[in-house]
UniProtKB/TrEMBL annotation:
<dbReference type="GO" id="GO:0005737">
    <property type="term" value="C:cytoplasm"/>
</dbReference>
<dbReference type="InterPro" id="IPR029033">
    <property type="entry name" value="His_PPase_superfam"/>
</dbReference>
<dbReference type="Pfam" id="PF00300">
    <property type="entry name" value="His_Phos_1"/>
</dbReference>
<dbReference type="InterPro" id="IPR013078">
    <property type="entry name" value="His_Pase_superF_clade-1"/>
</dbReference>
<dbReference type="GO" id="GO:0016791">
    <property type="term" value="F:phosphatase activity"/>
</dbReference>
<dbReference type="InterPro" id="IPR050275">
    <property type="entry name" value="PGM_Phosphatase"/>
</dbReference>
<protein>
    <submittedName>
        <fullName>Broad specificity phosphatase PhoE</fullName>
    </submittedName>
</protein>
Length: 214
């Protein structure tokens, strides 16, 4: 059987001065820091000797921009897969909060009644199904080598929990999926045999200097 690794990467920091939940809204691009994060991950993969033959991203601009440096570094064409798109969310385009945000308006409250599905957006199960399908397509395309897929926080986290056989409902504060992080799935044939998480741009994350004391 061929050993293949599929890396699921979250996009870099997005320019979002209005602090809204941008979701699937087109036109949201990386900030300057986000571009730096994307380059950092590409450099990290090259320095680590990654054998990447496939680079594919969500159709959203921030994911496409994040994937571009890696595609260039490995000399492969950047592909697009709709299945890697951000999760659908009722609160898209709105500020989400209790004060001046959407939660102060009663018309939004019915969307919060079921956190297990969840009631405010695309069901977790559907996210797992499409993300796993995208991962296995990339595994087949890169058989015996490595693939890099750039997606978004929640779909990446759902894909991981699905592969680990864990319940899909979770506390969002506990997601291990920082900006520009890479969750790597190692397959022997079509069987998952390993999972590894890295943060190549950890020192670039907002607040990193305060955390490290530097």
């Amino acid at each position: 059987m061929s050993v293949t690794t599929v890396h699921l990467m979250r996009h870099g920091e997005v320019f979002n001065p209005d602090k809204i939940l941008y979701g699937r809204i087109p036109g949201y691009h990386l900030s300057e820091l986000g571009h730096q994060m994307a380059r950092r991950v590409a450099e990290h993969l090259v320095a680590g000797g990654a054998d990447i033959t496939v680079v594919t991203a969500s159709p959203l601009q921030r994911a496409q921009e994040t994937a571009t440096p890696a595609a260039a570094a490995f000399g492969v064409e950047l592909g697009t897969d709709e299945r890697l798109i951000e999760a659908g969310n009722h609160f898209e385009g709105k500020s989400f909060g209790v004060g001046d945000g959407s939660l102060r308006h009663p018309e939004h409250w019915p969307y919060l009644i079921n956190p297990f599905r969840p009631s405010w957006g695309e069901p977790y199960k559907e996210q797992v199904e499409r993300m796993h399908a995208a991962v296995h397509t990339a595994r087949e395309q890169a058989e015996g080598h490595e693939a890099l897929l750039v997606s978004h926080q929640l779909p990446v986290w759902m894909a991981r929990r699905g592969f680990e056989g864990k319940r899909l409902w979770h506390d969002p504060r506990n997601r291990q999926c920082s900006l520009a992080s890479v969750t790597s799935f190692r397959f022997d044939g079509d069987a998952l045999v390993g999972l590894h998480y890295t943060e190549p741009a950890a020192d670039l994350l907002p607040g990193a200097s305060q955390v490290s004391g530097a």
